[in-house]
Amino acid sequence: DFAGFYADELESRAALSYPPFARLALITAEAEGSAPSLPPLRGEAEVMGPLPAVNKRGRKVFKVLVKAPGRAGLTAAVRAVLRAWRGRRLAVDVDPASL
Question: Model's pTM, two decimal places?
Fold first, then answer.
């Protein structure tokens, strides 16, 4: 039943503030040693992570999920993380299809 699944999925996403009710960005950083520190964020943005590191060719890969109610808040939060993690190999995936 597609209509029932759709209604249940929207209800779950609204309760968790997931898209389409919020915006997400997945930030991936490669670093040596421990996880880079995260800056304090202003506004309604929420940072989840960093997730436990995965080794990739002798370097560790850290992932952070940023969630905000709107695009402006998400952009500000992502910029703050990118500034704090400057000098590392970074990738940003806005509204990722999978986590």
Answer: 0.81
How many residues are present in the chain?
Answer: 99
Q: Which long-range contacts (CB under 8 A, 24 or more apart) does 36-39 make?
A: 36/62, 36/84, 36/85, 36/88, 37/84, 38/64, 38/81, 38/84, 39/80, 39/81, 39/83, 39/84
pLDDT digits (tens, 9 = 90+) for 25-51: 999 888 777 777 787 777 788 888 887
> In this structure, what is the dihedral angle of CA atoms 3, 70, 50, 92, given to the nearest 10 degrees?
90
Could you count the other beta carbons within 10 Å of the beta carbon of residue 73?
A: 20
